[in-house]
Amino acid sequence: MNLTWLYVLAVYALAVLVTRRFGAKLPWRVAALFYALVLMFFFKPMTQAFVNIPVDFVHLLPPWAFLTRHPHSYNGELNDLALQIVPWAHQVRESWRSLDVPLWNARSGSGYPLLANGQSSALSILRLIALPLTLGQSFTCEAALKILMALSFTYLYCRKREWTELASLAGAIAFGFSTFLIVWLHFPIVSTACFFPGVMLALELLKERITYARFTFAAILWALMIFGGHPETVAHVFFFALLTVTWIVFVERPFATWPEASRFVIALCAVLVVAAILASPFLAPFAEAIKRSKRFQELQVQPNVMGIYSDWSSRIILIEPHFFGEVPIEKPWGAAHAESITAFAGILGVAGWFAMLVNAIIKRRFRTREFFFVVVTPIIVGIVLAWPVIGALFHAVFKLAANARLRLLLCFVSAMLTASLVDLVQRGSTRVYLIGIAFAAAVLMYLMHVADFSAQWYADIATLAILPSMIVLLVALLPVILSRTDGEGPVAQERYGSFAALRRLRMTIPLLLLIVAIIAELWKVDLVWNPTLPDRLMYPETPLISALKNEIAIGGQPCRMVASGPTFFSNTPAVFGLDDIRAHDPMANGRYLGMLRVAAGYDTSDYFAQWRNFKSRLLDYLNVCYVVTNPRAKLDDIQRYKLVYDGRDGRIFHNNDVLPRFFAPNSISLIFHDALFAQRVAHQEDFSDTAVLRRLPVENDKERSDLLAPRPPNAPRTTLRLTKAFDTEYELIADAPRYTLIVSSIPFWPGWHITRNGEPYEPLQPNAAFLGFVVRPGRTHVRIEYSPLSFKLGAALSLLMLATIVALSRESLRRRVPIARRLE
Predict the structure, then answer these.
(1) What is the pTM of this model?
(2) E strand residue ranges, 50-169
(3) 588 or 457, which is more confident
(4) Residue 485 pLDDT level (bands cut at 50, 70, 90)
(5) What's the half-sphere exposure (Cβ side, CA atoms, 13 Å) at 657?
(6) Measuring CA to CA, which residue among 81, 366, 82 is closest to residue 251?
(7) Is 738 a residue whose pLDDT tops 60?
(8) Are 219 and 205 in contact (CB under 8 A)?
(9) Engineering a disulfide at 743: which of 212, 499, 633, 766 sits with its beta carbon 3.0 to 4.6 angstroms away?
(10) Where do runs of H (alpha helix) occur along 209-257?
(11) Could you give the CA distance from residue 486 to residue 354 in angstroms, rounded to a whole number?
(12) Which residues contact 380 (CB under 8 A, 6 or more apart)?
């Protein structure tokens, strides 16, 4: 039974109750409308055995593809959901459910940080709320809460701007169901973006009056947004907030004196500092990981390209997402895909932009927030479309970010202009309102005029694409038409009390119809992006997967696997608890992937990197016990690989030469020269024989001699016994006849701590990218644990700041209560 709808209802009702308790003007009728819209949008996945994530993509891949009669994917553009986001979410959920902090991802890339990878959303409040649900239901729950949060925060922000209730509803729906939020719905981008209007609301509250409660609200909101897991989006929101603050201080100038303005700016800076401290359990590990990541290292060689999705076709899609076809279910005849269509929040945003521009010119009101939205729109468009000066300046500051995602800001501004337009007609400015509607209609006609239709079929597609927007513009005329009809007379007076009441009614009904039209316009684009699929498609366990799990369980020792070609694209084995040596993640360990590239020819530049070199002895060193292939595939070295499973969905080969997770090599090669060191590692033939080191600190001459002197063939060997083996903790007992180097296939990373008989030991880095240590002669108890100082310090600072906030809140409340009693 799927009770996600009830769970979401309970969580949202509690949130509304709390916000109303603290003075938020969110009427229950509005909250009920928002929940009803979300329930309608996600009806099947919230109430039945369905999910709305494109997990059907994995059925295109072996081993699932061999058991599916007609494998296909409804939306292949969102394949990262199935190959990255869902597996990471599964790992995070399993860790939290086991009462462990999800610090380390042992399932991919032989191991690298999980929490520091923001896209795992390990500390997202939404992910934590959805923990009681199943994996598929949790994604539905998170998605519903994201939309509810965006709707509610946008409505409250619009009401704070003193726009009417219907105008605020229109703006909230335009942003809450904008293409940016719906296309990237299940990504951490939206886990962060849904807080955007809340940040703007907090800004308005602090502008109005700086109080401790408002300061705390703003700081916690920023921290929760950071915990969402997408720093790029946080940077984009900060950019917009900075523009807004600049406009408030230097253009609106609501403060009587400069000291008041200074206090406002100082308070905002303090909010960011407090928020950063609260979010330091994520920010500190992320800062530690970013420069070691694959993405950062690639950007040093090939920086982000400006002007992606900025051609003429992509400009058209800013206004009409389906102009070139109903992507993703149709093949587009122009630039139409996930990145390019995510700037749409309804055609009324275009009408609102021109109407607010004309209104400002006519009334000479250039210091309003509505005019700010007019001014900021070309700035954002200029960055998105890489206009010469503005695009280059922004790109220079935000060089690590994917700045095409700045379309989020366009959606928000468009939604605000929609609300401004509806508010304008409700306040009687019908002429300017009609000018805006006429401008939007002219833009649509212009698109049809300038488009290069090579076939009538394309023209028909474009006509159907603009039809919903044209209907919205036609419905938008009704408030003006009906409000101007003659409603005076004795019957009207007796029934409605006054002509004003009749006019309000005749304005309200068409505006409600307009809101319905806005919903229909947006849902026409939205509903095709996140397919509703039976939950049985969520990573079904095939016979091959069952056999592989059984083989690993029988072995009883830590071991990893690798698959050939497209079989088990990286991260998907994590859903079944399998450890893979490959990694499909921009935050993966760059040094480790470099080692795979030079030593085994692993192509890390390929978006879907595939392992093809099964002759490489690096597989032995990486503790690869099993190789998974397609059916009837053969591996050349029959002495090394033993076939242990042969089925319709593939084959499993056992690696007879696999090395254990920890072992003692026969000798050490110490090379100080960087180029020679890299060359030696790249040509390593037998990892069990020799370990290559660039640095080898020793305690005494005896240790130096034992480690570097040639070892006689019949010399006694060090024995290792692994007594504990978890993802982030290992214990072993070493019996060594002399000083001995122990190497592992755990990738080196700050945060791994080693103790020998209870004494701390600084880890070594053998073979360029892995963890190693030296044991003394005799018996040594060794403990290896991943416990990053960055997270511990971040968590300590965050808890300290949280305790300070609570203490000051209690003090603030204690001081206010006597004053309230005296006022009574």
Answers:
(1) 0.93
(2) 50-51, 104-105, 112-113
(3) 588
(4) low
(5) 17
(6) 366
(7) yes
(8) no
(9) 766
(10) 212-227, 231-247
(11) 30
(12) 406, 409, 410, 413
DSSP track, 498-552: SHHHHHHHHHHHHHHHHHHHHHHHHHHHHTTTS--EEGGGSS---HHHHHHHHHH
Q: How many angstroms separate the CA atoms of 282 and 288, rounded?
A: 10
Q: 10 Å Cβ neighbour count for 338?
A: 17
Cis omega (within 30 of 0) for bond into 63? yes
For tokens 């919205």, what's the residue? 472
Q: Hey, what are 573's tokens?
A: 């084995």
Q: Which residue has the tokens 């290896």?
A: 784
Tell me how far apart the alpha carbons of residues 92 and 118 are, in angstroms, rounded to a whole number. 11
At 489, give phi and psi (nearest 5°). Answer: 140, 165
- Would you state the torsion angle of the CA atoms of residues 556, 558, 564, 568, taken in this order, to the nearest 10 degrees? 90
Apex 398 CA angle, 394 and 400, nearest 5:
140
Q: What SS3 class is residue 114?
A: coil
Strand, coil or helix: 32: helix
Q: Which residue has the tokens 């003429």?
A: 312
User: Which neighbouring-strand residues pair with 251?
Assistant: none
Confidence of residue 824 (pLDDT cuts 50, 70, 90): very low
The mean predicted confidence, pLDDT, of the chain is 91
Q: What is the pLDDT of residue 815?
A: 63
Please report how many Cα atoms fall inside a 13 Å half-sphere around the Cα of residue 456, on the Cβ side: 0
Which of 221-225, 317-321, 806-810 has maximum average pLDDT?
A: 221-225
The reported pLDDT for the residue numbered 203 is 97
**How far is it, in rounded angstroms, from Cα 91 to Cα 104?**
10
Residue 312: count other Cβ atoms within 10 Å of its Cβ: 12
Measured between alpha carbons, how far apart are the two ends of the chain, in Å?
A: 52
Q: 493 falls in which pLDDT band (50, 70, 90)?
A: very low
Q: What is the residue type of 145?
A: L
Span 37-56, pLDDT tens digits? 999 999 999 999 999 999 99
Mark 770-794 as b/e (b = at least 16 C-beta within 10 Å).
bbbbbbbeeebebbbebebebbeeb
**pLDDT tens digit sequence for 101-150:** 999 999 999 999 999 999 999 999 999 999 999 999 999 999 999 999 99
Question: Omega into 328 within 30° of 0, i.e. cis?
Answer: yes
Q: What length does the chain have?
A: 824
Say how many C-beta atoms besides its own lie within 10 A of residue 618's C-beta: 22
Beta strands in 585-697 (DSSP E): 624-629, 641-647, 650-655, 662-663, 667-670, 690-693
Question: Any residues with CB less than 8 A from the CB of 490 and at least 6 apart, and which?
Answer: none
Q: Among the residues of 112-211, which ranges form H helices?
A: 125-129, 135-160, 165-176, 179-183, 188-193, 196-208
**β-strand partners of 775:** 740
**How is residue 740 annotated by DSSP?**
E
Integer-rounded Cα Rg, in Å, for the chain is 30
407-426 vs 369-384: helix axis angle to the nearest 10? 150
**What is the rounded CA–CA span in Å between residue 444 and residue 46?**
36
Q: How many CB atoms lie within 10 A of CB 456?
A: 8
| Token pair belonging to 192 | 């962060």
- Side-chain-side CA neighbours of residue 472 (13 Å): 31
Say how far apart CA 255 and CA 207 lie, in whole Å: 9
The answer to whether the beta carbons of residues 178 and 226 sit under 8 Å apart is: no
> What's the pLDDT tens digit per position in 680-713?
888 888 898 899 999 999 999 999 999 998 888 7
Beta strands in 430-574 (DSSP E): 533-534, 560-563
Residue-by-residue DSSP string for 247-312: HIIIII---SSHHHHHHHHHHHHHHHHHHHHHTHHHHHHHHHHHTTBHHHHHHHHSPPPTTTT-SH
Give 409-442 as a 3 state SS string. HHHHHHHHHHHHHHHHHHCCCHHHHHHHHHHHHH
Could you tell me the pLDDT band of residue 322, with boundaries at 50, 70 and 90? confident
How big is the CA angle at 104 (ends 100 and 105), to the nearest 5 degrees? Answer: 115
